[in-house]
Amino acid sequence: MWNLIYCKEDEEVVKKEILPVFEGQKVELLEVESKDEWTSIRKEESVICYLPDSALKEVLLSAGNKEWKLGILPHPKMQYALEALSIKPSLEATLDEILENKIQQKCDLFYCNEELIFKSVRMGNFALIDSVEGHKSPWSQVVSIFKTIWNLRNARHQQVKVTVGEDFNLNTSALGVIAVDHAKRSIMTSSFSGSSLRFQNKDGKLHLLIVSPESLLEMWRFLIMSLFSFALKKPGRPKFIGYIRCDEIEIREIGKNGFVIDGQKQQAEELKLSVHQGAIQLLQKSSVETTKEESPDTSNQFKVEGLPQGEKRDALIRKPITLLPRASTEDFKDLFTVLRNNSKLTTPYLVMMTIASIIATFGLYHNSTPVIIGAMILTPLMSPIVAFSMAIIRFDVSMITSSMRTILMGTGVSILFAALVSLMIPMRIITPEIDVRLTPNLLDLGIAVASGVAGAYAHAKEEIAKTLAGVAIAVALIPPLAVAGIGIGWMDWTVFSGALLLYLTNLAGIVLFGGVTFILLGFAPFKQAKKGLIASLIVTSILAIPLAFSFNHIMNEAAITRSLEGLIISELTIRDVKVRRGEEKTIVSLRLLAEESISDEQIRELKKKIEERINQPIKLEVSTNLEF
Question: Considering the chain, what is the average pLDDT of its residues?
Fold first, then answer.
């Protein structure tokens, strides 16, 4: 015998479309409005429901208590249960599956303050993420994500107190909290469906995500990445999202905005969430049934190490969330201790600068790249420069003074000892390693910019501080100082000025973009850092003028080389074109291939045609090869 519970308004549909499928089997029709009738159904009887969400919730409460064998049919007004219980949208297919009576499986039920939940419970002062329901196309998900990003501009952290049993208490702050019993309940939780978090299947546990980003930038990055979660097999959980897995949980300090259950806004002083494992027995297939592991993991999980607490929590609650992160007091203290020590002039610092300068000078004379790299690793100059970068954005006068003194002394010592070594070596030859540091250009400024970012980030993040040696090699501070010292020893202004310009370029790029990096990491508000950044930007812009001219020359030389290489003029083939700057004219060096000797007149004619082609006068250097 079957018991069919339905709404009175659906009586015609029940009689025309549902009853004929039973083919003479006994079916007792019970209107959901007549509660006394259907609540009297005895234990373990077969019950079929054709109901909208609101009515179905009430029936499910009785179904769990009386252990009914339950079949649930898709209803036009079934909004959340269809997704929550993974019910087939086809009425005919669902009826066939139920009547076959071959499937009996238990399914969990999720409760909030004794109210049944089909989808999720969301708390926070903004719609954290809309549910999967209503987002059937990728485009609608994109719209939802960017709508959330826009709404975040006025978001504010609120205090959240979480209690699990007697052993776990958490007092933190969050932009929002979402509780589900399965990953598919929302876009946010479904983005973790391939991760190590254990809510891919229903397992008799509820799963709570506490979203506590310190900045809008951090949250925006996560939301945009969740659009591509389908391509990420195991997207990691960001540190600012806490995860709790347990049987029941209490949440207090909900805030004036209340909470949302299955799309309906409600108010309460506290929430009590729980999952009743295997609460109902279904006569149909559900993709979210209780897990059937032989030894299911029943342990609770608490991954909340990245959530704000103490002073950081209080600071986030006081003000709206900022665009950029704010470093904690602990982060400030640790980093400032390191940078203040780095800014001080010490004897070991001067000794290492001297040794590095001497090694670099010998390496430049010897044209040995490994020796020069060794000198780069030894030099401690990067540390006071990064300290100076922090000092100007914080406008810390004492650190500005000490770090500047340390930088100037290190610079002076390096140039001095490089000059002394060059005076002792009776050789005056511009090796390729020296020559490459005489004409800095915008590319060198780009390297300095990237190195400034890397240096500041490596100092701020203790776990990657070991990469500072790589930063020192990339920015190459000591070789241009050594070349400048060689220029003084040789009394050659061109060598000295070119190398010094390269050093100043590196210095300005590191200071400016090291400061920008510290601001982005939350170590200084932009208003406070503005003066220091403007001063650094002015200095860098002034240095960029000669660098731009030098870069233009390089571009011009490359264009000439590209234009002439392989060209055939008057049966003469041009090979191995090299271009360099001369005192008055550009010098073009090339090799000519010909089948017979080349006369002076032919070379003059060739020079004239090359000048016409590149539209500038040149000094031509020619070597010839004869082909037979």
Answer: 83
Q: How confident is the model at residue 134 (pLDDT cuts 50, 70, 90)?
A: very low
Q: Is 264 exposed, middle or buried (0-12, 13-18, 19+ CB in 10 A)?
A: exposed
Cβ within 8 Å of residue 252, ≥6 positions away: 161, 163, 269, 270, 271
- The predicted-structure confidence for 31-89, as pLDDT tens digits, reads as follows 999 998 898 999 889 999 999 998 998 899 888 888 899 999 999 988 888 878 878 88
Of the candidates 143, 168, 171, 141, the residue with the CA atom closest to the CA atom of residue 157? 171
Q: Which among 64, 167, 55 has a CA at the least distance from the CA of 110?
A: 64
C-alpha distances out from residue 416 to 420, 483, 585, Å:
6, 11, 35
SS3 at position 177? strand
3-state secondary structure of 116: strand
User: If you ran DSSP here, which 8-state letter would residue 290 be given?
Assistant: B
Distances (CA, A) of 222 to 217, 228, 237: 9, 10, 10
Q: Is the CB of residue 171 less than 8 Å from the CB of residue 177?
A: no
DSSP-assigned beta bridge partners for residue 174: 158
Half-sphere exposure of 529 (CA within 13 A, CB side): 24
Residue in this structure with the two tokens 């650094």, named with its chain if needed: 536
β-bridge pairing 2-6 and 46-50: parallel
Strand partners, 91: none
| DSSP string covering 145-174 | HHHHHHHGGG-B-EEEEEEETTTEEEEEEE
Q: List the structure tokens of 624.
A: 């010839």
Residue 361 pLDDT exceeds 80 = yes
pLDDT at 135 over 50: no
Is residue 289 within 8 A of residue 129, CB to CB? The reply is: no
* Beta-ladder partners of 580: 587
Alpha-carbon distance of 71 to 48, in angstroms, equals 5
pLDDT tens digits for 439-482? 898 988 998 898 888 888 888 876 666 556 666 666 678 999 99
pLDDT at residue 184, rounded to an integer:
58
Asked if 439 and 550 count as a contact pair (C-beta separation under 8 A), the reply is yes
Please calculate the CA angle 154-159-164 and round it to the nearest 5 degrees: 135
CA atoms of 418 and 421, how far apart (whole Å)? 5
Q: Which residue has the tokens 């000092």?
A: 391
Here the contacts of 25-32 (C-beta below 8 Å, separation 24 or greater) are: 25/1, 26/1, 26/2, 27/1, 27/2, 27/3, 28/1, 28/2, 28/3, 28/4, 29/4, 30/3, 30/4, 30/5, 30/6, 31/5, 31/6, 31/7, 32/5, 32/6, 32/7, 32/8, 32/58, 32/59
Residue 198 is inside which H or E element, if any? none
Cβ burial, residue 89 (10 Å; 0-12/13-18/19+): exposed
At residue 292's C-alpha, the angle toward residues 92 and 234, to 5°, is 95
Q: Which residues contact 341 (CB under 8 A, 6 or more apart)?
A: none
For 214-261, list the strands marked E by DSSP. 241-246, 248-252, 259-261
